[in-house]
Amino acid sequence: MNKTNPKVDGYIRKNKQWHDELQTLRRIILQSELTEEVKWRVPVYTLDGKNVLFLGSMKECCGLSFVKGVLLKDPKRILIQQTEESQSVRIIRFTNVAEIERLESTLKAYIDEAIEIEKAGLRVPLKKISDRKIPDELQRQFNKSPELKKAFQSLTPGRQRAYLLHIAGAKQSQTREARVKKHIPRIFEGKGLDD
Predict the structure, then answer these.
(1) Sequence-ordered list of residues with C-beta below 8 angstroms from that of 18, at least 6 positions apart, any chain
(2) Dihedral of CA 27/28/33/35: which sign?
(3) CATH 2.60.40.1820 is right for the domain spanning 6-119
(4) What is the pTM of this model?
(5) Alpha-carbon gap, residue 51 to 39, rounded angstroms
(6) pLDDT digits (tens, 9 = 90+) for 145-155
(7) Rg over CA atoms, the chain
(8) Domain limits of the chain?
């Protein structure tokens, strides 16, 4: 069994609702060769410093997220694409220890496959920024200000993607316009949505 990380002890201790489920998932993961770390305040399991799995809790469930889950074979059909925009990560959700124990051998097999995918250096082909639709409200601002378009294009692909998703996520055009105007100064500063 791998060495435990005390920060993960704290994470699990604070999650009273899913304490037993998280502890059971952790026990299964630690039987693999993955290293237990904490990143972004959640348990992350790595191989040679590369993220392979995340352990997490939500209101209605807890889950095991596979960073390159889309590459897993998933013969049991238990992996879920959490959002439409999730290109790579796939999650398995749990609401009780019995579910986890029933799937223990399957989980071990999926974890082993995820490790082999990482060892092989396989990559998920991600959608390019140029393949994404630019919301009309942002495009109008680009048309008015070529400097804004240039500043946006100089952002990292991740920052561009975050802005596109945030702006397009508003249901009403008025809200999308407000979001664009709010973030124009940040774009010119080279900052991302969360910087």
Answers:
(1) 57, 61, 62
(2) negative
(3) no
(4) 0.75
(5) 10
(6) 999 999 999 99
(7) 20
(8) 6-119, 129-188
